[in-house]
Amino acid sequence: MVESCLEEWNIEGIFTLKVNNASSNDVAISYLKEATNRWKGTVLGNEFVHVRCCAHILNLIMTDGLKHHNKSIDRVHHAVRYVKNYPNRLQTFKRCVEKVKIESKAILCLDVTTRWNSTYKMLENAKKFEHAFKQMEYEDLEYILHFRGGDYGRRPPNEDDWETCRRFVKFLKLFYNATKRFSSSLYVTSNAFFDEIYMIKRKIDLFSRSEDHFLYSMAKTMKEKFDKYWGERGGFIKEEKCAFNVAKVITYHVQHVLERLYEHYNSTHSSYVSIQSASEISRMEGVGVDVDDDDDDDDDDRDRFIASQ
């Protein structure tokens, strides 16, 4: 279908095609590379056609990481669920918010097991109401009983639980912001790729040395998934320890490719590649600009000059 559409639209070549990481896409891309390899607009033998969606890979990394349950996060989840389950509980919670004078306009939301970013939003909003949840323990006896009857620590979240959630939210925020940037459609995103991925790698490495068993286990799992796509096995970011080595990675993976691309376009479109001075272009277009050394030109003259350009 992609081949048919390209032919229908008179597109004679493609540079890249971004897809998620499904095995069926590997087959489709292999066919497309072979089918379009001799097309007029083919770039470097379709070497760079297959691009895996960064946002999708981040989602896979986070989904694997969140398989490790943490009692602190579970307690916050059940605290939010308790409040949202019934309107009368929500009204009690709102009274608690007013009593402890919280002015946040955030809205409590529950996470969804199939969407890791919903866990981020749940914790990000819930932590703003920490003191309101604490007040619920005095305002609503059923709130305490709700936890005693469950298998999530037998108590509501305390200060240590909220502190764990705050640290976790900082970690998730890095992925959340990167996913938003990669998923944007109104501006170029490829130039942000290396910085975002490198910062995520550094954060995963940091948490993989954490004394917190939950953060350590989660980061270890995420590191394995990260390395599969972007680590040494993935051929993108190796175990670099200093800025000099990172610069070497950039030089090899970016400069080398750009040079090859330049040579390709230079040989393919040589008739369009000619460097001319500004004066030559001005003479060809019949445009002349007089430069006055007097610094006292008035605003009207300046405005007319700008408008004429």
What's the quaternary structure here? single chain
Order of helices and strands: HEHEHHHHHHHHHHHH
> Count of DSSP E strands?
2
| Helicity, as a percent range | 55-70%
Ranges with pLDDT <50 over ≥5 residues? 233-244, 271-309
Radius of gyration: 28 Å
**How many strands, what sense, and barrel or not for the largest sheet?**
2 strands, parallel
Alpha-carbon distance between the two ends: 46 Å
Going by helix content, strand content and strand pairing, the class is mainly alpha
Shape category: elongated
The average pLDDT value, as a whole number, equals: 76
With strands numbered from the N-terminus, the spatial order across the biggest sheet is 1-2
Q: What percentage of the residues does DSSP assign to strands (E)?
A: under 5%
Count of DSSP H/I helices: 14
Describe what you observe in this structure:
There is one protein chain. By secondary structure, the protein is mainly alpha-helical. Among the domains are: 2-52, no CATH class; 71-230, no CATH class. Helices cover 62% and strands 2% of the residues. The chain contains 14 helices and two strands. It has helices at residues 2-8, 23-36, 54-65, 71-85, 87-99, 116-126, 130-139, 141-148, 159-182, 193-207, 213-230, 243-268, 278-285, 299-308, and strands spanning 17-19, 50-52. Strands 1-2 form a two-stranded parallel sheet. Helix 4 (71-85) packs across helix 9. The longest helix has 26 residues, at 243-268. The two termini are 46 Å apart. The relative contact order is 0.08. Residues 233-244 and 271-309 have low confidence and may be disordered.
